[in-house]
UniProtKB/TrEMBL annotation:
Domain of life: Bacteria
Entry's Gene Ontology molecular function annotations: GTP binding
Record key words, sorted: Antibiotic resistance, GTP-binding, Nucleotide-binding, Protein biosynthesis
Recorded coiled-coil stretches: none
Protein name (Swiss-Prot/TrEMBL): TetM/TetW/TetO/TetS family tetracycline resistance ribosomal protection protein
An example Gene Ontology biological process: response to antibiotic
Family matches, as InterPro entries: EFG_III/V (IPR035647), EFG_V-like (IPR000640), P-loop_NTPase (IPR027417), Ribosomal_Su5_D2-typ_SF (IPR020568), Ribsml_uS5_D2-typ_fold_subgr (IPR014721), Small_GTP-bd (IPR005225), T_Tr_GTP-bd_dom (IPR000795), Tet_C (IPR035650)
Domain Tr-type G positions: 2-231
Keyword Ion transport: no
Length: 642
């Protein structure tokens, strides 16, 4: 019985990822002709845009058969601006193949990918590409990989005595077995790879097909099929549309089986398709371990879990927002097109303001914006532009507070008490319920927790989303006679905002901005200019490292200062400097006061997100401002205000 393996190829742009995919398919006998990215005839780069630019933008699927395995191969984007699509694919992989270019070594983005693989617990094989290029040194590249990624990235190209010693050293029990003279079995090594205790490294040249046969044989030998539960579970990892505009939900079956014409998440599946490049065959059912594209589903989204599988929250999120300039196009046609693209990639966060007649999108960087323009042109024949974006700021809190919301217009009643506490950096917003059933019934508690999770809560400094906050339901009050559907929702939203206003009053709110981790390589004559630039941009950097006549500077800086720096580097180094950056996450804003004054946001005037409450007296509802709520509240405070 052939084992079924899903693997994905991930890499920094230009490391040779798609070339390796083609080489593997060719060597395994699954394609007859070897395509090339630079010729625009690569088997997996099917979109016109990809052929034009010579880069992979979308993730693609191909089938590959070896002596022992049926392998589903997912090629992924290599540019940092499309990292969110790569992250979605990682959630369904059994193994990943990380391609490192021997000429570039371990780049910042390769480290980002490594961290994502770790977060998703994906076992990794490493293929060092372009080892044939003069000046590359196998030993040096391996040392760089072991230093930058893990010391347990081991050379698997020769299975000699040293190989078995290195493998055994990665695990105490195996080392004991080895020292006692017992044989190390293939299954022992397979288990260490699955447990991410060792990472096999192979060397070759995808373009010249060297090392490909050895890599395929090694992948065949050292992988093993997952064991799946008989209970149905699955994950959607991609949404796309075929040439006829049919919506496809790409799903990996993680347990049990899935059949056509059955229901999934309340919608009927029409067709199940198995793709190989652009071609597909329809199937009646798919089993655990297989990937399928389903038609007929309209509400699915990337990261969604079915059955016993939870939804997966993306960790890479856009940090820039741009406004669409429709030029001569109909703004509503642009909105419909962007909604389709936003369906495929929810991270675009397409927003339409009827009041301003404005369309906005969120992106990772300039390349993604260029691709977006070209997609609108090629798929929807819309010629548009995007105007200078602004930074997506976030807000967090510096100390705990109890927030209270009360909603009591005539014949309504709800009061909610929430504890807001600072969370770890880049942890998002998490919710907990610490309320007794004697205080609020199960139904009321459910309404409050649902309300908390159903809204993006905005801060009171700029009106931007809050993050790194834990919100716990402490208690509250309802009325069997007067509490109706939306009352607890209203009280919940007000409680969050009221707590934030208390903290604003005490100067205990922090404005956060996105930061980049960057790597800058310049000739020595440009080092002075580079270091001055980084300091001017409020950046931080490690000691510069010399590499021949080149200098490498690594550090971090605010996105607001550094977002256009690549063009400056190209300018002052006359195209010779190399600059790359990846989003590090959110850190305190370097010029918070200036930004707050610029925005001049008034949280009390933001009526959709009011911090004020509504109380009832003399038979009528009236507004009580946020600062007077504590003395008017009906339910006692758990943490009285100081």
């Amino acid at each position: 019985m052939m084992k079924k393996i899903t693997t994905g190829i991930v890499a920094h742009v230009d490391a040779g990822k798609t070339t390796l995919s083609e080489a593997l398919l060719y060597r395994a006998g699954n394609i007859r002709n070897l395509g090339r990215v630079d010729n625009g005839d690569a088997f997996l780069d099917t979109q016109q845009l990809e052929k034009k630019r010579g880069i992979t933008i979308f993730s693609h699927e191909a089938k590959l058969t070896t002596d022992d395995a049926e392998i589903t191969l997912l090629d992924t984007p290599g540019h940092v601006d499309f990292a969110f699509q790569t992250e979605e694919v990682l959630s369904v992989l059994d193994y990943a193949i990380l391609v490192i270019s021997a000429t570039d070594g371990v780049t910042s983005y390769a480290k980002t990918l490594w961290n994502l693989l770790e977060k998703n617990h994906v076992p990794v094989f490493i293929f060092v590409n372009k080892i044939d290029i003069p000046g590359t040194n196998k030993g040096q590249v391996l040392t760089d990989i072991q230093k930058s990624l893990s010391e347990n990235c081991l050379d698997f190209s020769q299975e000699d005595q040293t190989f078995y010693e290195n493998v055994a050293s990665a695990d105490d029990q195996l080392l004991e077995k080895y020292l006692n003279g017992e044989e190390i079995m293939n299954s022992d090594i397979q288990n260490l790879i699955v447990q991410r205790k060792i990472y096999p490294v192979y060397f070759g040249s995808a373009l010249k097909l060297t090392g490909i046969t050895e890599f395929l044989a090694g992948f065949d030998k050292w992988t093993k099929e997952k064991e799946y539960s008989p209970d149905f579970s699955a994950r959607c990892f991609k949404i796309s549309h075929d040439k006829n505009g049919e919506r496809l939900s790409w799903i990996k079956i993680l347990g049990g089986k899935l059949q056509a014409k059955t229901e999934l998440a309340g919608e009927k599946i029409n067709q199940l398709r198995e793709y190989n490049g652009e071609k597909f065959t329809t199937v009646v059912k798919v089993n655990a371990g297989e990937i399928v594209a389903a038609t007929g589903l309209t509400k699915t989204y990337p990261g969604q879990g079915f059955g016993a599988t939870d939804a997966k929250e993306a960790s890479l999120k856009p940090v820039l927002t741009y406004k669409l300039n429709p030029l001569d196009e109909d703004i509503h046609a642009c909105l419909m097109a962007l909604k389709t693209l936003g369906d495929e990639n929810p991270q675009l966060h397409v927003t339409w303001s009827e009041h301003l007649q404005e369309l906005r999108v969120q992106v990772m960087g300039k390349i993604q914006l260029e691709i977006l323009k070209q997609l609108l042109q090629e798929r929807f024949t819309l010629t548009v532009d995007f105007e200078q974006g602004s930074i997506l700021y976030k807000e967090t809190i510096a100390q705990p507070v109890e927030g209270v919301g009360h909603f009591e217009p005539l014949r309504h009643y709800a009061e909610v008490h929430l504890l807001l506490e600072p969370g770890p950096r880049n942890s998002g917003v998490v919710f907990e319920n610490n309320c007794s059933l004697e205080v609020l019934t199960q139904n009321w508690q459910h309404q409050i927790m649902t309300a908390l999770k159903s809204k993006e809560h905005l801060g009171v400094l700029l009106g931007t989303p809050i993050t790194d906050v834990k919100i716990t339901l402490l208690g509250g009050k309802g009325s069997i006679v007067h509490s109706v559907g939306g009352d607890f929702r209203e009280a919940t939203y007000r409680a969050v905002r009221q707590g934030l206003m208390e903290l604003k009053e005490q100067d205990q709110l922090i404005l956060l901005e996105p930061w980049y981790d960057f790597r800058l390589e310049v000739s020595q004559e440009h080092v002075g200019r580079a270091l001055n630039d980084i300091q001017r941009m409020s950046g931080q950097f490690n000691s510069p490292e010399n590499k021949g006549d080149r200098t490498i500077i690594e550090g971090s800086a605010p996105v607001s200062e550094m977002q256009d720096y690549a063009a400056q580097v190209r300018g002052y180094t006359h195209g010779d400097g190399i600059f790359e950056c990846v989003v590090k996450g959110y850190l305190p804003c370097h010029n918070a006061q200036e930004i707050i004054e610029q925005k001049n946001y008034d949280p009390v005037s933001d009526l959709e997100n009011t911090p004020n409450s509504v109380f009832c007296s003399h038979g009528a509802g009236h507004t009580v401002t946020w600062d007077k709520v504590p003395e008017t509240a009906h339910y006692p405070y758990t943490y009285p205000l100081k």
